[in-house]
Amino acid sequence: MSEVPPCPKCHSEYSYASEGLMICSECFYEWNPEEAAEAAANDTLKVLDSNGNELQNGDSVIVIKDLPVKGMPRPVKAGTKVKNIRLTDGDHNIDCKIEGFGSMGLKSEFVRKA
Fold it and tell me: What count of other Cβ atoms lies within 10 Å of the Cβ of residue 111?
């Protein structure tokens, strides 16, 4: 018996084949398993800054607005240059170290490429 792939939308293991498509019995999402495998092979993390420029690991960025930091008496000021960023998956998609603040996560919508 071949293994049934989980639903790419809700990750449910209860999916079934019907007329060449896979159907999720929980969220009713339909997908073609060949196209899903092709898309997964071509899928890469794409992070854009506030101007729409694509960011890469190791880039330098500039903060475009004052960002309050929880537990710190002062915010990260607009114009602060952040070097050697690392891209991650999630809400705060940039991991970096800012002098005077330490390691933190930033949202890409609040930075621009330097």
Answer: 27
Helix/strand/coil percentages in the chain, nearest 5 = 10, 30, 55
- Residue type for position 15: S
Span 87-105, pLDDT tens digits: 998 889 999 999 999 999 9
Output the pTM of the full model.
0.63
Cα–Cα distance between 8 and 11 in angstroms, integer? 5
Residues whose CB is less than 8 angstroms from the CB of residue 26 and which lie 6 or more positions away in sequence, other chains included = 7, 10, 12, 14
Q: Residue 97 and residue 9: Cα distance in Å, rounded?
A: 33
